[in-house]
Amino acid sequence: MRLLYGYYDCENLVNFRKGRAAHNPLGNLSREEIEEQTKNPDRLPARMATVVRSYSAIVDEDADNEDGIDTDRSFENALFSAYYDECAHSKSRFLRQWADFDRNLRNISAAVVARVTGRSAEQSVVGGDETSQQLKRSSAADFGLRGDVPYLEAVIAAVNDETNLVEKERKIDAI
């Protein structure tokens, strides 16, 4: 069950790393524990801990970054990819299926927003599965996924057609 709430720990780790005060209490870890886990990630699932350790060496890289790489965005993508990978390896069939659905739903939304704002979906879509790869590379209106993702059109419509953020969230939640 802890892994289900691990998504919020990812959000909290990203917020902490970016210097934001926001902390979602739905996560498993308190604000103080999140700070500690950035230094010694011994309470995080293995794949997430590996990402935190890997990026802890480049915390100050943004100041020295000559390549123009957004390390905050890279960290965020790597952390959420690790989270979904951790879920995919869970013994719980429910958790595996939920994580797959959740990742796809969020990725479709992110890819549509990226397209609308003229950004590359590559930086917004998380994961390396077939659906994620298709979202990253396709220029088709439906990302070439119409037959594969039954809720695709509903997500695209909710993101494209709704300007009210609350209504947009409501429509996506209804999916």
Characterise this structure.
InterPro entries: DUF2764. It is a single chain. This protein has 175 residues and is mainly α. 61% of the residues lie in helices and 0% in strands. It has helices at residues 6-17, 31-39, 46-56, 61-64, 71-88, 93-117, 130-137, 152-161, 165-174.
Write a concise keyword list for the protein shown above:
175 residues, mainly alpha, 9 helices, 61% helix, globular, DUF2764
Question: What's this model, at a glance?
Answer:
The chain is mainly α. The chain is built from nine helices and no strands. InterPro entries: DUF2764.
Largest sheet: none
Q: Helix segment count? A: 9
The shape is globular
The helix/strand series, from N terminus to C terminus, equals: HHHHHHHHH
Structural class by SSE content: mainly alpha
The radius of gyration is 17 Å
What would the average pLDDT be, to the nearest integer? 89
Distance linking N and C termini: 23 Å
**Total of domains:** 2
How much helicity do the residues have?
55-70%
Sheet-strand content, in percent, reads under 5%
Pfam families: DUF2764 (PF10962)
InterPro entries: DUF2764
Task: Set out the fold topology.
Layout: H1 6-17, H2 31-39, H3 46-56, H4 61-64, H5 71-88, H6 93-117, H7 130-137, H8 152-161, H9 165-174
Helix pairs in contact: 1-2, 1-5, 3-5, 6-7, 6-8, 8-9
